[in-house]
Amino acid sequence: MDLRHRIHPALRGLVNRMQGYAFRLDPDAVHHGVPSPSATIIISFDEPLDVGWVDGRTERVQRWLLASGMHTSPALIHTHGVQHGIQLDLTPAGCRALLGLPIGPLCHTLADHADVPVGVPDDLHARMSAASWPERFDLLETHLLTAAMRARTDLPADLAYAWQLLGRTHGKVRVAELADQIGWSRRHLVNRFTAEFGLPPRDIGRLHRFGAAQAYAKKGAPWADVAVHAGYADQAHLSREFRALAGQTPSAWRADALGAAS
After folding, report:
1. pLDDT(260) > 90
2. I need a labelling partner for 40 at 20 to 30 A (CA). Which of 4, 26, 65, 204 fits?
């Protein structure tokens, strides 16, 4: 079961996706959590999420409530035959409003919600676990709307503009051109991006391009067309990027993405 919930108008620009999922899989199945230009929030039911990085940079952890920022290598999710929960994809503005901190400190992390200023509290998680799917979405939406109303800091306008430009162009704006448009030096741009987002502009552009490729690929487009639409030089470049960022060939990634929550 894979159920996408429509984003409330007041949460648009903060939440890109709210998706429920419930899968029964091979107990030895390992799902790849691939990079994207967003923060990932997982609310697990039945069993905690068992996750670590493919490069082994930190030990595997178990999280009922996971918050993770952007990353440039895949996470490995050991399913134990079950994946049951809700995934939220948050924008940088959404991290500030709904988690109470910039997306940058969550870069390459697998944090518990107890480690962030806002997050999903344990009592809400318990009520959601016992509820039906419609009730779960209603409970979560109400919590997010309340958090958004109480938020005190917005994403700085100059950084928001630069982020949106990278998204609209699938990361095809050069760093020097981006700096010129904002009126900053290249060094200042890189420093501000890294402080706010956790990654420099080049990597964020790369994630926007890869995110576009994933969106096209999930629609079933041929890989050569995916490469063109997402802005890669050719299919070979696209394949190399999938191996680098997803740890899989494009075909293996598509089979994994269509068989589990991505």
Report:
1. no
2. 26
